[in-house]
């Protein structure tokens, strides 16, 4: 018996990709480049190979951060000072990721490999990239271990969740005039470039001061936030706009289908629950110097959170392509529930049972990361196995039927039964 029930597999035949991209930057600037870039790839290269190559580049960027800033992951306090040129490599890597993420669909159409597996794989890599870029961008902005980084994680994941939630209910992927995959990534690339030229300390300058407006009577009464914190406020405003647009699109779809537009709102609660859960774990009372936000456990904590999120939205996308029920609960959250409850036991006068010290907390966070990683790896493996077996395709190989109806590898001089 496979991971997916037979009815879900049968519904894969009903899948058809629908997408809307209203970005002017994408249409007039990037898309002509993408149309040329995809022609450089041989037709025997599978779309998922291109997608995974992009994610691998981001993982390499993340590895360079840990290499040049080991204190971020190994010490409770303090940071290393990575060379400024490293930020240029992050900018180049992210641009390559965006480009590869944009052309995998084009390659799928060129090779006749467009289908539900491609959307699952593409969105899965995007979900992982989301947390990795939050960590990298926060480091480039000089935010480090702070609530601003946590806020950035929540806002970024919320945008991704909203897009997936909207696609589930409307049946199409909608990217507005300002979207995360296009303008959002370009903004992060600009951050990396500025940090490479001026250093992360540049972002500590006050917003109104650097514009020479801080002496104006009206402006002087407004908060003069640092540039990095101002960027977070700008992101919050963008999130509010995206929430409004997503809800509007879902509301219109529900009206056309003569369904309640209130029920879909209930499916936003799972994300709210998980965000509050992680915040509760982070904001627990200090006990024996056990404080994740100020410790070396912060990076693995964010990574565990990101993996749990990827598992959550992966199941949402799977429900979309198989016409299944919306997954309102995910068992992988149980481990974080345990961590949050245990850490907050001092609020009722009980010492934490597991997280009795900073060392115990760090170990528990790493275990949570390992469990989250294994859970997501299992999900990805089982889903890919079931879909490829049912549809008779391969994940990383372009396979087509020959004149005899037999599957053939598209690479030159390679055949498979």
Over the alpha carbons, how many angstroms does the gyration radius reach?
23 Å
Please tell me the overall pLDDT. Answer: 86
Biggest sheet: strand arrangement? 1-2
Number of DSSP helical runs? 15
Biggest β-sheet: count, sense, barrel? 2 strands, parallel
Uncertain stretches:
none
How many domains is the backbone divided into?
1
**Termini separation:** 24 Å
Subcellular location: Endomembrane system
Pathway: Phospholipid metabolism; phosphatidylcholine biosynthesis; phosphatidylcholine from phosphocholine: step 2/2
Keywords: Membrane, Transferase, Transmembrane, Transmembrane helix
Family: Belongs to the CDP-alcohol phosphatidyltransferase class-I family.
List keywords for this structure.
single chain, mainly alpha, two-stranded parallel sheet, 15 helices, 3% strand, globular, CDP_ALCOHOL_P_TRANSF_CS, transmembrane, diacylglycerol cholinephosphotransferase
